[in-house]
Amino acid sequence: MFGNYLIGLREGLEASLVVCILIAYLVKTGRREALRPVWLGITLAVVLSFAFGAALQFGSQTLTFEAQEALGGSLSVIAVGLVTWMVFWMRRTARHLKKELHGKLDAALQMGTVALVITAFLSVGREGLETALFVWTAAQSANDGVRPLIGALLGLLTAVALGWLFYRGAVRINLAKFFTWTGGMLVVVAAGVLAYGFHDLQEADLLPGLASQAFDISAQIPADSWYGTLLKGIFNFQPDPTVLQVTVWALYLIPTLTIFFAPGRVAPNRATPAAAPSAPVAPKEPEPHDTQVAVPGARNTDVGSGGDGDSERVHDGARREGDAAGGVDG
Prior knowledge:
Number of helices: 10
Low-confidence stretches: 266-330
Protein name: Iron uptake transporter permease EfeU
Transmembrane segments: 6-26, 38-58, 70-88, 108-125, 145-166, 178-198, 242-262
Region (Disordered): 271-330
Keywords: Membrane, Transmembrane, Transmembrane helix
Membrane topology: Multi-pass membrane protein
């Protein structure tokens, strides 16, 4: 249940942050008329995500056992691939997510209402589909009734509440550290889902080695005990895994965590120049919503004003240069 809560919290918080950025940008720039199509796109994305999850749940029940195992195993591998890409992508681009969304929203505003709906739909729908797929595969591997779904729902509700508090300015946390550590925990959960997915493929006779057990500690950690259930819910732990399951689990988890926590995985802030500390800092480039641009050296002068003070400073500078060159007053 905790593993699914973590999935719902992590994925839901990403979607909540996207929604907060989109809504806050429109409100701050005075474009409230664009809120309705944005909310429409968000609603369509949420409906599609729930419909996708329902199709996975009820559609798989009409299949044979082998077909169910083949479907579950294949989708588990796909879900782990998507989640792995997502955690690396979020860690690399978390600092620039706001600027990227602002750029997409500005382009959509110029194109019209349909573009706004599509932009909001795609921004939230990607997170929703990933969440539905990964929650379903994790619930299938946990085989613990409705508790995995309850855990995922609680995680999503927590994410929505945090998103609202972020928008209101009531909560401030270090999102970079949050996504780093939850991403690492999600990689551990994904390793268990991947191992169980390969077990499903073995039960579907698509992969060999179903009878080759790596170890069996069912007597020490019974699957129906409270601690066995806890390990199963968090790590998809199985007391009698096959050799292939253990191999896949180790080959995925160890290198993925090593690369994920390696120094330098986070992209540098684009607002910070890459030159040496002594190099001059370039002026800020104007963004589409900027109404004024600060000019280095200007003294409370509007852009393009060309006041008398500037002209006097130019003449004074030229006169001083002439004095230095000739050394004698004319």
